[in-house]
Design goal:
The chain is α+β, with helices and mostly antiparallel strands. Helix content is 19%, strand content 33%.
Length: 827
C-alpha cells in the first residue's frame, strides 16, 4: 500500500508537469483559461499582413471517444459501444481532424490500469481512418488482468484531456499516464496543431463512478468513493482550463445522471457557435441499441454539423439517405455490423460513384470496408437522395443495416459595400449573398432556417467593429426572404488605409468560409461616383442580360472605368461588354452594358457580382451589384410550340365537331325513314310501301310500279338509286319533298296530296308538307290529267284549263326530255 501511494503521488506530479506545457501554450495562444470563455474568440481578427483565403473544407476538430469497458456491461453492450465509436471516427467530415479512442475501467491490483489507449490521436485522412477502423475493434476485447471491473471517471477524463492537449510535442512523441501500480506510454501522430482547434470528449457509459476497490483513492471503500468524486471535480476543472468539452452519453437503468450532468457542465463550456444546443450537455438513452444513433446526433451537435437519418434493412436491399443542397461536406455512414456486407454507393442521378477519387465535381473516399462500420466521405456532394445498395454472402445478412449522413454546409459569401470605398465616419450598407463551393446559389430561405449572419470590420486606426445583418425586409434590407442579408455600420472616424470585412454565418449545420473582403478608406469627397444596376432575368445559355452604369465625373479630365466580375459561380462563362468605358469630364452619363451568358454556363442561379473600378484612381472600386440571373435549359420543340399545337388540335376538333353535327342533322332531316307511299288509281288504293331505316341514303328513295298481268299494280323498292328506270322520291332536308317520275322531271310533292305517276296516283304520307312553289291564283290541272303528249316534261304553265296564272317549272326535262343526265345533276 505504501508503494502504491508513492506511485500515485509520483504519477500526479508527472501529470501536473505534463499539463503545465499545454496550459501555457493555451494561454499564450489567446485561448481563455477561465470558465465561461470561448475556445475560438468571437472578436474580429486583425487584418493580416498578407491576405490568404481560408482553407477549403470544414474546420477540423480534435476529439476522443472514451468508452466504458467496466464489468457491468454485457458483451452485446460493449459491442454496440464499439460500433458507435467506429461510426464517429469513420464519419468525421474533415480530413484535417484528429481522433483518439480510449477504453476505461478501473485499477484495483498490480498490473492493472484504469485506461487503455485503444487508438492514438490520429489524423482522420484516408490512411488514418483505415487505421482507426482497425484499432477501434480492440474495445471489444476486455482483459481482466490489464483493467479492473470498476468505473474510474476521473482517470478517463484525465487520459482524454492529456491526449487532446499534449499531442503537440512533435511527430512520434507523446505523453503517457499511469495509475495505480502501472505506468502508461503513448505515441502521438502528426505535428503541432494551430491554436483554436476545438477539443471534444465523447464519453460512453452505462453506470456511475465506482472506484471503491481502487487503492489509489484511499484506504477504505467509503473514502475511495468520496476521493474519487473530488478527483473528478479536479479533472473537470483541468479540462475546462484546457478548453476541452465533455459530452457524456449514458444508457441503461443504473446511471448516475447527476454525475453525467456534472461532467457536461464541468468541462469547457465553449461551443462551435452561438446556436442553442451546440454547448456540451448530457444525454441518456434507454438501451445500448440506441447509442449509435444518439452518439452520432451528439457528435453533429458538438461539431456544428447536421445528421440525416436514412432507411434501414437487411441485405440485399437498397437504402436511401437525402443530402440537402446546402451541404458542401459530408459522410455517409453504414452500420453494417458484419465486415462481409458489401456496400455500393449511387448518387441522386443514379450513377455509381467511385470509392476513391473525383467524379462530376465531387471527391469521394471510402473507409472501413473491412470492418463492421463503413463510411463514404464526400466533398461537394450532389444534393438529393443517395442510394446505398447492400449485399451479403449466405449466412451474413441476418442483421439490419442502417445508413445516415453527417453533413455541413460551408458557404461562401459574396459581399457588396455601398459605398464601395467609404470615408471615415461614413455610414455603409453591407449586403451579403451565399453560395456553396459547387456553385449552388442559395435562393430558398427555408434552407437557411435559423441562420444568423454577422460581420466584423477591422483595419488601421480603430478597434474591430461587429454588427448584425438580416433578411427581414426592414430597412436597410430591401425584401424579406430573398436570401440577401443586409446591415449597416458607420466606419470609425479613426479609420485610415485598408479595411477588411469578414462575414460569419451560423445555423445548425452551416458555417461560413470567412473569406475577407478588402476595401480602402477614401480620402475626401470622390471625384467620380457611380450607380450600377443589372436586370433580373431568366435566360438560356448564349443569351445576354442588360445592365446600366450611371456615372458622375466631377473632374476636369475624363476617367476610364473598368467593368468586371467577381465571386462567379464555378464553371460560369460570363463576359461583360464593354469591358472599359469612359466617363466624360464635368458631367453625368448613362452607359448601357451587357453580360453574355456562355453556352457552357451551368444551369441554375448565377452567383457573383458586377464591379466597376476607376483606373485613374488606383483601381478604386466605385460600386458593385449582385447578379440576379437564373440560367435554364433551352426549351425543346414541344415546350416551344405546345400551345400552338394544342390550339390547332382543339380548333380542328371544334370544326370537325361542328361539321359533324351539321352533317348529322342534315342527314336526319333528309332521312325518309317512316315515310309511306300509297299507290292508287281512280280513287282506289292499290298498294303501299313504307321506307325503312337505311333505305334512303342521302335522302333518296327509288321505287318502281310493277303491273303484273291480270293483277293490281304494286310498289317495289329499287336498291342503289335505281338509275333512270325508277321513280325517285327525294328529301331536300329543308322540309321539302321532290318526286322525279321515271323519265320525267322532278316536281314538288306535298304530303297527303296525290301526285300523278303514269296511269296512277301517288300519295306520300308521314313526311313534311312541301311549301308552295309557283302557285297561281287559280287551281291548276293535276299532272295526271294532262294530255299524254305533255306528261314527258315538267312544263305546264299556261292558261285555260291549266288555271289562271302561271305554274311554270324549270329544270332538266322542262322541254320534255328524260335523259339520265338530268337525274344525275339533281340527285
Amino acid at each position: 500500500m505504501q508503494w502504491t501511494n508513492r506511485g500515485s503521488a509520483l504519477l500526479l506530479a508527472g501529470a501536473l508537469l505534463a499539463l503545465a506545457g499545454p496550459l501555457a501554450a493555451t494561454t499564450a495562444s489567446g485561448a481563455p483559461g477561465v470558465s465561461g470563455a470561448r475556445a475560438v474568440p468571437r472578436t474580429a481578427p486583425a487584418a493580416p499582413a498578407a491576405p490568404t483565403d481560408p482553407a477549403e473544407g470544414p474546420d477540423p476538430i480534435d476529439f476522443a471517444v472514451v468508452v466504458d469497458q467496466s464489468a457491468s456491461l454485457a458483451d452485446k453492450d460493449l459491442a454496440r459501444e464499439t460500433e458507435a465509436a467506429a461510426l464517429l471516427v469513420q464519419g468525421e467530415i474533415s480530413e484535417r481532424s484528429r481522433a483518439a479512442v480510449i477504453g476505461f475501467g478501473s485499477s484495483e491490483k498490480r498490473g492493472q490500469s484504469p485506461v487503455h489507449d485503444v487508438c492514438q490521436l490520429t489524423v482522420a485522412d484516408a490512411a488514418g481512418r483505415e487505421r482507426l477502423s482497425d484499432c477501434v475493434q480492440e474495445l471489444g476485447r476486455r482483459d481482466a488482468a490489464r483493467m479492473g471491473p470498476g468505473t474510474d471517471f476521473p482517470a478517463a477524463v484525465r487520459q482524454a484531456v492529456t491526449r487532446l492537449t499534449g499531442a503537440a510535442a512533435g511527430p512520434g512523441a507523446g505523453t503517457g499516464t499511469g495509475t495505480g501500480t502501472g505506468t502508461g506510454t503513448g505515441t502521438g501522430t502528426g505535428g503541432a496543431k494551430k491554436p483554436g482547434t476545438p477539443k471534444v470528449v465523447f464519453l460512453l457509459t452505462d453506470g456511475k463512478l465506482d472506484v471503491a476497490d481502487s487503492p489509489e483513492y484511499g484506504t477504505d471503500r467509503e473514502s475511495r468513493q468520496s476521493n474519487g468524486a473530488k478527483r473528478l471535480v479536479e479533472e473537470l476543472a483541468r479540462a475546462r482550463a484546457a478548453g476541452v468539452q465533455i459530452w457524456p452519453l449514458g444508457f441503461g437503468g443504473e446511471l448516475d445522471r447527476a454525475s453525467l450532468t456534472a461532467m457536461a457542465e464541468g468541462g469547457y463550456r465553449g461551443a462551435c457557435s452561438e446556436i442553442p444546443g451546440s454547448a456540451p450537455r448530457m444525454r441518456v438513452v434507454d438501451t445500448s441499441a440506441e447509442i449509435d444513433k444518439a452518439l452520432q446526433e451528439t457528435f453533429a451537435a458538438a461539431r456544428c454539423a447536421r445528421i440525416a437519418h436514412g432507411t434501414a434493412g437487411k441485405p440485399p436491399a437498397d437504402l436511401t439517405v437525402t443530402i440537402p443542397p446546402i451541404a458542401t461536406d459530408g459522410s455517409l455512414t453504414v452500420a453494417k455490423h458484419d465486415p462481409k456486407v458489401q456496400v455500393t454507393y449511387y448518387d441522386p442521378a443514379g450513377r455509381k460513384v467511385p470509392v476513391r477519387g473525383e467524379f462530376d465535381g465531387s471527391s469521394f473516399e471510402v473507409s472501413g470496408q473491412n470492418g463492421p462500420v463503413e463510411a463514404l466521405r464526400v466533398k461537394n456532394p450532389l444534393p438529393g437522395p443517395w442510394r446505398v445498395h447492400i449485399e451479403a454472402p449466405p449466412g451474413h445478412g441476418d442483421r439490419e443495416v442502417a445508413v445516415r449522413a453527417i453533413w455541413q454546409g460551408r458557404l461562401r459569401s459574396a459581399v457588396v459595400l455601398d459605398p464601395a470605398s467609404p470615408r471615415a465616419g461614413e455610414r455603409v450598407k453591407v449586403e451579403v449573398q451565399m453560395q456553396t463551393r459547387r456553385g449552388v446559389v442559395i435562393t430558398d430561405p427555408h434552407q437557411l432556417a435559423g441562420l444568423s449572419v454577422a460581420a466584423d470590420l477591422s483595419g488601421e486606426g480603430f478597434e474591430p467593429v461587429s454588427f448584425r445583418l438580416a433578411d427581414d425586409g426592414k430597412a436597410p434590407d430591401a425584401k424579406a426572404g430573398d436570401v440577401r442579408f443586409t446591415g449597416t455600420l458607420t466606419v470609425p472616424a479613426g479609420a485610415t488605409g485598408a479595411l477588411e470585412l469578414v462575414t460569419r454565418m451560423e445555423a445548425p449545420g452551416i458555417t461560413s468560409d470567412r473569406r475577407p473582403l478588402h476595401a480602402v478608406v477614401a480620402e475626401g469627397a470622390p471625384l467620380v461616383t457611380a450607380a450600377l444596376t443589372v436586370d433580373s432575368a431568366t435566360v438560356h445559355p448564349g443569351a445576354t442580360v442588360s445592365g446600366t452604369l450611371d456615372v458622375t465625373n466631377n473632374d476636369s479630365a475624363p476617367h476610364t472605368l473598368r467593368l468586371g466580375l467577381a465571386d462567379q459561380t464555378p464553371g460560369a462563362d460570363l463576359v461583360v461588354a464593354p469591358a472599359t468605358v469612359t466617363a466624360p469630364p464635368n458631367g453625368s452619363t448613362r452607359i448601357p452594358f451587357t453580360v453574355t451568358v456562355g453556352k457552357s454556363t451551368p444551369f441554375g442561379a448565377l452567383g457573383g457580382r458586377i464591379t466597376v473600378v476607376d483606373t485613374a484612381d488606383g483601381d478604386r472600386t466605385l460600386r458593385g451589384a449582385f447578379l440576379n440571373v437564373r440560367v435554364v435549359e433551352p426549351p425543346t420543340w414541344w415546350e416551344r410550340w405546345w400551345k400552338a399545337v394544342i390550339g390547332g388540335v382543339v380548333l380542328v376538333l371544334l370544326v370537325g365537331t361542328f361539321v359533324g353535327i351539321r352533317l348529322f342533322f342534315r342527314r336526319r332531316r333528309r332521312d325518309l325513314t317512316g315515310v309511306t307511299l300509297e299507290l292508287s288509281q281512280e280513287g282506289r288504293s292499290l298498294d303501299s310501301l313504307t321506307v325503312r331505316r337505311g333505305q334512303s341514303p342521302g335522302g333518296v328513295f327509288a321505287f318502281t310500279v310493277d303491273e303484273p298481268y291480270g293483277a293490281p299494280a304494286t310498289l317495289r323498292r329499287v336498291p342503289g338509286g335505281g338509275g333512270s328506270s325508277a321513280h325517285v322520291l327525294r328529301s331536300t332536308g329543308a322540309g321539302e319533298l321532290l318526286l322525279r317520275p321515271r323519265g320525267g322531271a322532278q316536281v314538288p310533292v306535298r304530303t297527303g296530296e296525290p301526285a300523278g305517276l303514269g296511269d296512277h296516283e301517288l300519295v306520300v304520307r308521314g313526311g313534311r308538307p312541301a311549301p308552295a312553289r309557283g302557285r297561281g291564283r287559280g287551281r291548276g290541272t293535276p299532272w295526271s290529267r294532262l294530255p299524254r303528249r305533255s306528261r314527258g316534261g315538267a312544263g305546264g304553265g299556261g292558261e285555260g284549263d291549266t288555271g289562271e296564272g302561271s305554274g311554270r317549272l324549270t329544270g332538266p326535262g322542262a322541254d320534255g326530255s328524260s335523259d339520265a343526265s338530268a337525274y344525275d345533276v339533281n340527285f
